[in-house]
Amino acid sequence: MSVLALQEYEFERQFNEREAIQWMQENWKKSFLYSALYAAFIFGGRHLMKQRAKFELRKPLVVWSLSLALFSIIGAVRTGAYMVYILTTSGLKQSVCDQGFYNGPISKFWAYAFVLSKAPELGDTFFIILRKQKLIFLHWYHHITVLLYSWYSYKDMVAGGGWFMTMNYGVHAVMYSYYALRAAGFRVSRKFAMFITMTQITQMVLGCVVNYLVYEWMQQGQCPSHMHNIIWSSLMYLSYFVLFCQFFHGAYLSNSTRKALKAN
Predict the structure, then answer these.
(1) CA–CA separation, 174 and 169 (whole Å)
(2) Catalytic one among 47, 139, 142, 249?
(3) pLDDT in tens, the chain (264 residues)
(4) Rounded Cα distance, 203 and 184, in Å
(5) Is position 228 annotated as part of the catalytic site?
(6) What is the pTM of this model?
(7) Where are the domains of the chain?
(8) Do the beta carbons of residue 248 and residue 201 sit within 8 Å?
């Protein structure tokens, strides 16, 4: 693949992706340990907080959400620049099947930053537990499975990763910005929350489409992946699609229907 005619920052240029990929190949199973500790915190934390007063934690939550928003915005811009370049110069198939996302200029750092970020992102749930807010299955199921799948896939540099990561960066850029505004006390339109959930649902549909393309082109020997990865990824995206649709219906459509009936 030709060298990208895109401006790199020094830290991106100096990043050693070979060491990062090797580390992940040797340590990716630690994601199961982190997931187990996370699950233990959820159930143990909820039990401990049952008889305790909730923590306010508004300022730390603003800092937390704003930090993840800025990280996601920058990640979306940098990986998006790479994906746009590949799409416009080499086409859709190359953008899906190209492994250059893992070791190419600009994107190689942000690919690794993405998979590593799935561990600290578990901290979202700490605020929910300590502030005694409602914790839904979708929230912690999503956190655990994304962590496991991201670490599992990065080590193999599987096709489709550029699309998966760039989409997730983009959705999280909007989502964490929304969380930061809410935590800071700003009144945000309900339509913004609906828009975020709709983008998440769209992301799941596109994820399934990318998996289909990887499978089709893998049969032609042009997409570096394997069936186990495609199966797990497809099951993950399909389950997210169902859960996010259920959430959208319960959070927005059901309430709207009740209000409309009352108005009549």
Answers:
(1) 9
(2) 142
(3) 444 446 888 999 999 999 999 999 999 999 999 999 999 999 999 999 998 999 999 999 999 999 999 999 999 999 999 999 999 999 999 999 989 899 988 899 999 999 999 999 999 999 999 999 999 999 999 999 999 999 999 999 999 999 999 999 999 999 999 999 999 999 999 999 999 999 999 999 999 999 999 999 999 888 999 999 999 999 999 999 999 999 999 999 875 544 543 443
(4) 27
(5) no
(6) 0.91
(7) 13-263
(8) yes
